[in-house]
């Protein structure tokens, strides 16, 4: 568990957490550490010359907030994504329709022998501007002590900043008059933040699928660095299902179909109590272990190698700082740090994201609600599948008589796994090592991304998230991405750009 | 269960419900039925002459919305209440401070032998203007088919309209040059809609208490009529406790103190699951019977007389119309109408008014919430008390290890009971009968009002809600109060005013 993982998890305290961690970073080393370790001086010069254009590229993109959950700027976001990759040298760029919001597909034929796939998202998470210290679409630059100059804006870290950093590498390579060492196949979706409900449709669109199958690996540019010279490589990710369980008088045929005066509870059934009773059958009394019938049937326990990787990662991070940053004091069952990290990656979860019923404002209101909703996310581990899990949850509820409780899945996908020995992973490891960054292998991300669509048939290609650069407060107020670093252990925009240049070349030599 | 009870319960469909019921009312009888049955022709003339002033009195009062839950216009509302009763002839009018919002006290010494107490509320329920068909403070007049001309506004029915109708009676008696047959003691609070948290303090303020103890009964003016010539007399009301149960990482010392990324569920406890587990210990699996330890210890079963009253009331109403108006199809346990009505009045309840945790907006958001809240109301029946119930709930949770789950009571009071043989009740019955209205005695209101503060020591005075007039959609959009009736079975403003005139005189002759 590295510090970058703190940031990945942290939603509210990230600024404080980053400042705290940054304050501990030594500033003794000379700046330019990454430049000394890398190569491609001509490309670096081009990247430096293009830095202001790169910053503007992020800024302009952030200004167009595509939010699938709010159906906001979606066609505009797809069109903008298409222009961005055309500008970076892609051809045959297409807006690919889905049942939901469209994807964007394109290829860049460098005449190379090998082909890398790229996965981008052009959507961003919802935001409440009132919670931000600067307007979320304005990309103001702010100095962070011990870190450098960061850009504040929705999507700067997740994922427009890191994605634009990859595009900056393509621009720099071209500006330096070099050819790309690999061909590229590009696929972006606009529904990542709502659980990628139509991503499989997108990836299996015939020409898209044909393109993806030519790739030896598919990479998502991400800011994977922490503040102490480590970068995480995930060998997989949990799957996820986001859903609502809804109990209502309408479907139940008992209790009121609408909110009525609460005195009627003495004679009418309550959909809210119905929901509570259905919910409590899903987990153990401590709320920590799913007890849905057959849930663990296909769960593959972590291997000894995977546990060893977790233990190794745990040794390179501070439990105390993690607890402080994430505002908690005890792990489940008071586990040790090491065991908690193993549990974190090993276990499937049934989590309550939200509860909504009846009156939710200040104080009370004497109503018997006609409808109650629990928003759940279920994290899946190999070899669970989304289809299996939804079916088992439905059957579990039905078996206990909760046939009336609606199960509305809004999105989700299977877990994903990529071998430690794939060329993609080996190139990632080698690039980080060359740049003096410690590659921190973890068996899987406890969170989720829809890489499973790539690793499973019919695509069946290894995936990985890669990139230096540093950002945080994803999904939270004051999301940020580091532009100019004053911390020699952390790459700013140009060094992060160069890491992609190194990676593209490393891939062909691995 | 009468039609007025439908309206009392109905929150959304009231307009439709009223129209539906009104459509069935015969219009064959001549208007002025109430005038023919009543007396006091000189006072009636004065009431008719003062009608426009009475309408304006309601309108101006509604324009000043005092909402305790929002701390809105509270001192202004108390001052306005004080002016209204001075204007109606009260003297020694005081604003009485409490720990919360102030009350208003005053007396009217008519030199009579007997004294009646009055309970008013000057606060109104919250509203969302967007849900209304006309601005909630504008008091627009609208024609309702089969009913007449109604005034639409927040507080018109609950309770400014009925209260102003009583004040109109005092104005009319004075205008006719008559003396009041009884002395009056007046007490108003501004916190009825938040569960009267400081009403006991108000009622036991020494001079207020002394005034109340002089009364032979305390009456709350209310629109108690239905559309078919019945008026309900409640011989009591359930008590209520409004509270929040809060599970949080902060208090629990487990799970996060703030919202964190939901992937952490695999290693962190969940306050939301904690809440669900605590909640489900409170009721039977069907959600219908409280199973809090010792809950029924002091519950007095309904007497045979009380059950007989309920059965009698049930015979005068339509189950089908009730189900339609309140949007449900089955009573608890598929009870018969009669048994459902007995259960309605007999049973204490533990009701979920609202659930709030984590993300409550559209779609999902992958967070593990640091805090989860259930808003509950508990209805109490004789001889439960608020103090007993809060203590038992706390003990129940503690015994099951939920010591960390906060129990925050926002308001509430004990049940209340008034004898069928009190002079107050007898005068109510006699007044209705004289006016040709069928008095519909019910053992108790399934809802609540803080009458228990009056019926219990140290006040120990019978209470009752009384009044003709017709209104509805209390707590709901388009709350209304009938001004000019075209339905001979339903009293408009002047006839409802005259019902109070009759009642005041009936009280001294009963």
From TrEMBL, chains A, B:
| Keywords recorded for this protein, A-Z | Hydrolase, Metal-binding, Protease, Signal
Q: Does the keyword Protein biosynthesis apply?
A: no
The UniProt entry, under InterPro entries, shows:
Cyt/Met_Dipeptidase, Peptidase_M20, Peptidase_M20_dimer, TAT_signal
Q: Which Gene3D superfamilies match?
A: 3.30.70.360, Zn peptidases
Where does the secretion signal sit in this chain? 1-28
Describe the location of the Peptidase M20 dimerisation domain by residue ranges: 256-402
- Is-annotated flag, keyword Hydrolase? yes
Q: Which SUPFAM superfamilies match?
A: Zn-dependent exopeptidases
Can you say what this protein is called?
Answer: M20/M25/M40 family metallo-hydrolase
Natural source organism:
Sphingomonas colocasiae
Q: Tell me the classification of the organism that encodes this protein.
A: Bacteria, Pseudomonadati, Pseudomonadota, Alphaproteobacteria, Sphingomonadales
């Amino acid at each position: 568990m590295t510090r970058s993982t703190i940031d990945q998890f942290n939603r509210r305290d990230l600024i404080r957490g980053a400042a705290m961690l940054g304050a501990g970073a030594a500033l003794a080393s000379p700046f330019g550490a990454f430049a000394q370790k890398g190569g491609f001086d001509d490309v670096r010069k081009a990247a430096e010359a293009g830095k202001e254009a790169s910053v503007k590229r992020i800024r302009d993109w952030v200004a167009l907030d595509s939010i699938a959950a709010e159906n906001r700027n979606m066609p505009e976001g797809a069109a903008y994504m298409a222009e961005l990759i055309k500008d970076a040298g892609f051809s045959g760029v297409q807006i690919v329709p889905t049942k939901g919001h469209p994807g964007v597909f394109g290829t860049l034929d460098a005449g190379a022998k090998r082909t890398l796939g790229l996965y981008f998202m052009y959507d961003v998470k919802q935001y409440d501007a009132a919670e931000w210290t600067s307007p979320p679409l304005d990309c103001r630059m702010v100095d962070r002590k011990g870190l450098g100059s960061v850009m504040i804006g929705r999507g700067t870290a997740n994922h427009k900043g890191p994605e634009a950093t990859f595009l900056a590498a393509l621009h720099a390579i071209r500006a330096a008059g070099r050819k790309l060492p690999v061909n590229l196949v590009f696929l972006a979706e606009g529904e990542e933040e709502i659980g990628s409900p139509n991503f499989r449709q997108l990836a299996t669109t015939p020409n898209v699928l044909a393109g993806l199958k030519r790739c030896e690996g598919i990479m998502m540019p991400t800011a994977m660095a922490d503040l102490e010279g480590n970068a995480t490589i995930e060998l997989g990710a949990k799957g996820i299902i986001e859903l609502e369980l809804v109990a209502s008088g309408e479907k139940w045929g008992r209790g009121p179909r609408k909110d009525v005066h609460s005195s009627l509870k003495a004679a009418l059934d309550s959909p809210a109590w119905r929901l509570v009773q259905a919910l409590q059958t899903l987990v153990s009394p401590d709320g920590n272990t799913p007890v849905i019938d057959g849930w663990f049937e296909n769960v593959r326990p972590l291997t000894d190698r995977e546990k060893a990787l977790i233990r190794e990662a745990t040794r390179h991070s501070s439990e105390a700082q993690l607890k402080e940053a994430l505002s908690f004091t005890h792990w489940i069952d008071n586990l040790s740090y090491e065991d908690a990290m193993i549990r974190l990656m090993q276990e499937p979860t049934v989590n309550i994201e939200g509860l909504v019923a009846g009156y939710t404002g200040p104080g009370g209101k004497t109503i018997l609600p006609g409808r109650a909703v629990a928003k759940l996310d279920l994290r899946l581990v190999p070899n669970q599948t989304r289809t299996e899990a939804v079916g088992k949850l439905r059957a579990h509820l039905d078996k206990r008589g909760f046939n009336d409780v609606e199960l509305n899945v809004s999105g989700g996908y299977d877990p994903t796994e990529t071998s430690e020995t794939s060329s993609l992973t080996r190139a990632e490891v080698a690039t980080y090592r060359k740049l003096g960054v410690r590659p921190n292998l973890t068996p899987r991300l406890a969170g989720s991304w829809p890489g499973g669509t790539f690793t499973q048939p019919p695509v069946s290609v290894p995936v990985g998230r890669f990139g230096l650069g540093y950002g945080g407060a994803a999904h939270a107020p004051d999301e940020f991405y580091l532009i100019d670093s004053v911390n020699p252990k952390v790459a700013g925009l140009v060094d992060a750009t160069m890491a992609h240049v190194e990676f593209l070349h490393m891939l062909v030599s691995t």
